[in-house]
Amino acid sequence: MHWMIKCRSKPGTGELRKATIPAHRAHLDKYPDETWFSGPLFTDDGESAIGSLRFIEFPDRAAAEAYINTDPYSLAGIFENVDVVRWRPSLEHRQRSYDRQEGTQQFIVHCTDVPDSADLRAPLRLAHQEYLNGLGRQVIARGPLLTDDGETTIGSAFLIDVADRAAAEALIANEPYTKAGGIYDHMTIDRWVFGHV
Questions:
Q1: How far apart are CA 48 and CA 53, in angstroms?
Q2: How far apart are CA 134 and CA 33, in angstroms?
Q3: DSSP state of 123
Q4: Is 157 buried (19+), middle (13-18) or exposed (0-12) by CB count in 10 A?
Q5: Measured between alpha carbons, how far is 150 from 69 in angstroms, rounded to an integer?
Q6: Cα–Cα dist 187/184, whole Å
Q7: What is the CA radius of gyration of the chain?
Q8: Which of 58, 65, 97, 101 has the smallest number of CB atoms closer than 10 Å to its CB?
Q9: Nearest to 59 by CA among 37, 31, 79
């Protein structure tokens, strides 16, 4: 099973995070095969870390939660909240082998569906897939967010590689599910940076 783990840091924990980085990296080094992508969330200017985003593979929720709960960042009390959501990758890209582009910025787009969105998604699924397939290297990783049993789609996650936030917002605005309206109940777009894996 694959999981998206998205963590938001408490305000004022920047110095504590810096002091904890070596222990955090040692923790990540224990999971080279499980980690698909891992990196910090930042303010748009790239100056301040505000959280963490990982796409990771574990057999169940308990293992995914054990992984993040024993991260030194968690043990130090840096995170204000942690979301662990089942994710199904639509691409085979992994961070260690991904051919990074120069001069771009990365963003994680996290979308949460309205309840019972399956009937709303169905007629737009092909257009959604064709649109994303046509974006080429602007999309690093993507896939639906699911209930733990993998049966029901409850959102979408897109890790994108574009010029800046304006480009990220334009890309998502033209995505068919977004453009149609009524499918996503909530959406966040956060700056992300390739981190230690």
A1: 15
A2: 29
A3: G
A4: buried
A5: 23
A6: 7
A7: 16
A8: 97
A9: 31
Judged on CB neighbours under 10 Å (0-12, 13-18, 19+), 136 is exposed
pLDDT of residue 46: 87
- Per the structure block, which two tokens stand in for 105? 């910025």
Residue 152 near residue 118 (C-beta atoms within 8 A): yes
Task: Report d(CA 97, CA 93) in Å as an integer.
Answer: 7
* H and E: helices and strands count for the chain: 7, 8
Per DSSP, the residues of 44-89 read TTS-SEEEEEEEEE-SSHHHHHHHHHTSHHHHTT-EEEEEEEEE--
Distance CA 21, CA 196 (A): 10
pLDDT digits (tens, 9 = 90+) for 111-155: 999 999 999 999 999 999 999 999 999 999 999 999 999 999 999
List for the chain the helix, strand, coil content (%; round to 5).
30, 35, 30
Whole-structure pTM value: 0.95
Identify the CA nearest to 35 among candidates 116, 119, 94, 88: 94
Q: Which of 39, 70, 35, 41 is nearest to 56 (CA)?
A: 35
Amino acid, single-letter form, for residue 40: P
The per-residue pLDDT for range 11-46, each reduced to its tens digit, is 999 999 999 999 999 999 999 999 999 999 999 998
